[in-house]
Structures are given as structure tokens and as C-alpha cells.
Amino acid sequence: MLNSKFIAKTALVTVLSFGLVACTKEESGTLLGAIGGALIGDALGGGDVGVAVGALAGAYAGRSVGRQLDEADQAKMYQATQGSLETGVSGNASTWYNPDSGNSGTVTPQPAYDNTEGQYCREYQQTVTIGGAVETAYGTACRMPDSTWKIINS
Predict the structure, then answer these.
(1) 111: domain range?
(2) CB atoms within 10 A of CB 145
(3) What is the pLDDT of residues 91-146, one digit of tens each?
(4) pLDDT for 52-104, tens place per residue?
(5) DSSP string covering 97-137, please?
(6) Which of 1, 36, 74, 83 has the smallest number of Cβ neighbours within 10 A?
(7) 143: alpha, beta or left, given left = phi > 0 and alpha = psi -120 to 50?
(8) Under 8 Å CB-to-CB from 93, ≥6 apart: which residues?
(9) What is the pTM of this model?
(10) Are the C-beta atoms of residues 151 and 13 closer than 8 Å to each other?
């Protein structure tokens, strides 16, 4: 079976990375949904077939969610993530909200640590709420020399 923690981190890395490089809402949602579906398939013990079916179903669902996150949503999510990782208290959620779209989310950082490459990093959980539907992802980010946080694979 796939390592679900690795998949979850990869999901967050992928979604946020694409969001930062002007990927469309639809593409970001498709990727997040596919990875989330794969996680569900893996968690249910479906083996490789279950993971593949989950990924396809998740991609379909995520595509429609992604259509609903506009640039303002992505900017607010990015600002909340950067702030939470830099100054947030471990275990305490930072929130963002876009009154124009009604979309919102949270970022909950975990304790900081130095990774094997000597980078200052934090794991975190992120939620996005669109029309009352909540999506959750997990990831790891490390502080860069310019004091921004970059999502990494681990």
C-alpha cells in the first residue's frame, strides 16, 4: 500500500505549488481531489486498484471545488499560510476568509524543527471551506533565506 502521510504531503505540496504559479482553480482542485481520493482509497484498504479508483473519483470532485477558488481566495490562503508558519503558535489555527466568495480556510502549524538538510521546517494542516464543504490537507514547509516559507516534499 502507499504511504498515506507521503501522499498527503505530496497533495499539499502540489496544490499550493500550483496555486503559487498561477495554475487555474480547476487544475489545483483536480490535483487536490485526485490525491485526496487516493488517500481515501488507500485508507479503505483498496490496494492499488482502490487507490486508482479513489484518485479518479477525487479528481472529478476536486475539479468542481477548484473552479470555485478565485485568485483572491488563493492570495488570502497564501498570506494566512505564510503568517501561520512564521509566527503561528503550534496547534492554533490561523484563519482566512474572502467575503466576496464566502470561501474560507484554516492553517494549523505544528512545532518547528530542523530537517536533515538543516532547514527550519514545520508540518501543518490546512482546510478549505467552499459552500460548506470542507477539504483537508497536510504538508511540510521550510523557511527560505528570504524568510518566505516553501512547501517541500519529504
Answers:
(1) 1-154
(2) 5
(3) 999 999 999 999 999 999 999 999 999 999 999 999 999 989 999 999 999 999 99
(4) 655 566 555 555 555 667 889 989 999 999 999 999 999 999 999 999 999 99
(5) E-TTT--EEEEEEEEEEE-TTS-EEEEEEEEEEETTEEEEE
(6) 1
(7) beta
(8) 84, 106, 107, 108
(9) 0.58
(10) yes
